[in-house]
Structures are given as C-alpha cells and as structure tokens.
Write a structure and sequence with these properties.
The chain contains nine helices and no strands. α6 packs parallel to α9.
Length: about 220
C-alpha cells in the first residue's frame, strides 16, 4: 500500500505540473456536450431517454483519450520501464495507475455530468442515489480494463488510435449496464432487469480489477 500511495502521489504531482491529461479529457467531454445540445433538438421525455446514452458516450470516449495520453506519456519519458525495474510487487503498479485514473475520471465527471444535465435541461434526476451508483460501477469497470489496455497499447505507436479499437469491445457490458442503470435513475423506473445489470457490473468490476492485478507482472515483462 505504501508503494501504491507513492505511485498515485507521483502521477498526481506530474498532472498538476501541466494539467495536460485532465484538460484534454475534460475539453473533449465538454465539446461532446455542446455538440449534443446544438445537434439534437430534444425536449421533455425524449431528453430523459437520450441523456444516459449521450453521457456514457462522452465519458467513454473522453476517458479513453485520457488513458491513452497518460500511457503514451509514460512510455515517451521512460517512466514505465523505470517503474518496471522498481523492487516492488508488480500488482502495485496496476493498482496505483487504477486509483489515479479513477480519481481523474471522478474529477472529469464532476464537471461533465452537470454540463450534460444543463444541456439536456430535463430537471432533476428522479433517483440520485441510483444515478451515482450507476456512474460509479460503470466508471470502475471502464478504468480497470482501460488501465490494463493502456499498458499494452503504451508500447505501440499511435496509442491514441489503437486504444478505442482494443478497449471498446471489452466495454460492452459496462456501456450497456451503465446506460441501463443511469436510465432507470433518470426515469425513476426500476425493474428486475436493473438489478441484473447492477449485479453484472459488480461481477465485471471485481473480475477485471483482480485478474489484471494478478497477471500484471507477466504483462509488464511482455
């Protein structure tokens, strides 16, 4: 845990020097919110049904951009190879990056979600607790698999172009589950399928956090 805290602190300090990754991620999500607002004339009940999908499109695309940018930066500066030689458990490398990316996405969502609520202007969310739960579970799964794939793509040229190709097929459960849970929260209409999606997201999150942490040593060596 000391190694994880040190790695997270290192990434946070590097980000504070330039704000490059956070600015790029937030700006991209903001542009998508503006495009959805002016590109579609959505009002009333239609806005509530369109909102969950539009929000997750912005978060997934913007988050993928941020993950790819961070991975390519580590590779260009040699930080990844240096950390791989550190005398610590390799799983700490994954957990440290995972926690940092989770914090990064949380900051982006604090800005993007209110912007999307204002852009779609349908009033308050019916069930805020379920809304936050859907965002949290979906973000957790996205960050877990995204952190793993960013490590793999970081060694390749054009990581920003490759990341969506290798990440999005694995994110189908996260996208569908996140949209379903957020839609239920926005509409205030919860049924048995919503609980099924929540359970699926929990299982997905746990698996894609535990398995990469255990296999990270072999992935880094490869």
């Amino acid at each position: 845990m000391r190694a994880v805290r040190a790695l997270v602190r290192k990434d946070v300090l590097l980000e504070r020097r330039s704000w490059e990754t956070l600015a790029a991620t937030g700006a991209f999500a903001f542009l998508l919110a503006v495009m959805f607002h002016f590109g579609f004339d959505i009002q009333g009940g239609e806005a509530r049904r369109f909102f969950p999908g539009a929000l997750w499109i912005a978060l997934l695309f913007a988050g993928t951009l941020g993950l790819a940018k961070g991975a390519s930066g580590d590779d260009a500066e040699g930080n990844g190879r240096g950390l791989a030689m550190a005398p610590i458990d390799r799983s700490a490398l994954f957990v440290g990056k995972f926690v940092y990316h989770l914090m990064l996405m949380a900051v982006v969502e604090l800005v993007v979600v209110p912007l999307f609520l204002a852009a779609f202007s349908f009033g308050a969310v019916a069930w805020p607790g379920l809304f936050i739960l859907g965002l949290a579970l979906g973000t957790w799964g996205f960050v877990a698999i995204g952190t793993l794939m960013a490590t793999v793509a970081g060694e390749l040229k054009g990581a920003g172009l490759i990341m969506p190709i290798i990440v999005f097929p694995l994110l189908v459960p996260v996208a569908l589950g996140g949209v379903a849970v957020v839609e239920a929260a926005v509409l205030g209409e919860m049924d048995p399928r919503t609980m099924t999606w929540i359970r699926l997201l929990v299982v997905y999150d746990v698996l894609f956090t535990a398995i990469p942490a255990m296999l990270y040593e072999y992935i880094v060596e490869a």
